Request: fold
Amino acid sequence: MGDDDTHHQDGAGVPDELERLWTPHRMAYIRGQNKPADSTAGECPFCRMPTLTDEEGLVVHRGGTAFVVLNLYPYSPGHLMVCPFRHVADYTELTDEETDEVARLTQTAMRVIREVSGAHGFNIGMNQGSVAGAGIAAHLHQHVVPRWAGDQNFMPIIGRTRTLPQLMSETRSLLASAWPA
Reply:
């Protein structure tokens, strides 16, 4: 620290009055950590998560044919995914029972998130295929992204940063404890 309370790092360029929000945890996503080497169930993180404890796998709820898990790289706090246990890529390949449970778990997720964090709205959807933006295209997963008025503001657009005010383990615990029996 200098006399004027600014930080200096050699080679970092000229001080520019901008503040920095460091998010080194995002490097795991950028480097492809947890990305499957291939599309088999053995490599799939959505097949692996249910084999872990709920705390380790960030699993919020387990149903009969599907489960609810926190997104490791969330767009907003409480960003959940609803996944069938079965390793299936396309929505049209779900059984009627899986389709019904994915829908019911999505509805329950919305109710629980509203109760726990007072979300004002949601983005809900699936990216089918890598060309549609699916990071893991081999295992279907529905995103449930809570939103609040002014929640992300300019951060993801200008700052290319997402703000998460709570540890994921704490978020998982809050949502899991509020999930109806």
